[in-house]
Amino acid sequence: MASNFVENGDNLLYTATAAISADDVVVVGQQIGIAMVDIANTETGTVAMEGVFTVPKVSAAVIAQGEAVLWDSSAGAFDDNLAVAAAGDVSNACTAWEAAGNGVTTIKIKLNTGKGTVA
Fold it and tell me: What mean pLDDT value characterizes the chain?
């Protein structure tokens, strides 16, 4: 067995800079995570960095299955790849696991299928 193995990398111990609730989307550098537990400000908790999760979606967005999605930080929801990124948004990190049309407010996404870009 490799002596330099550290861990599988599906979860990350994350130290919060503001209170985070379980299920919240967490931006970690250029990647997106999902808080697995409540994490108080300055405390450390587990954030999933892999997997498929149901997350908030911009209601008006029309997203195709397999489409790269954008985390809209001001809306607190994922948007389609035609959205223009604003400060704090993360694009190209995650992929739509299902299609979701106008009026739908949640979507299943796969975390970190690409290297994200932070606006």
Answer: 97
| Residues 35-60 pLDDT 10s | 999 999 999 999 999 999 999 999 99
Q: Which residue has the tokens 């996404």?
A: 109
Q: Is 86 left (phi over 0), alpha (psi -120 to 50) or beta?
A: beta
* Cα dihedral sign, 49-55-56-60: positive
pTM metric for this prediction: 0.94
Collapsed DSSP state (helix, strand, coil) of residue 30? coil
Strand partners, 77: 72
In the numeric block, the tokens 């949640």 are attached to 106
Look up residue 52 and give its DSSP letter. E
First and final C-alpha spacing in the chain: 41
Q: Is residue 119 within 8 Å of residue 86, measured between CB atoms?
A: yes
Q: Whole-angstrom Cα distance, residue 109 to residue 54?
A: 6
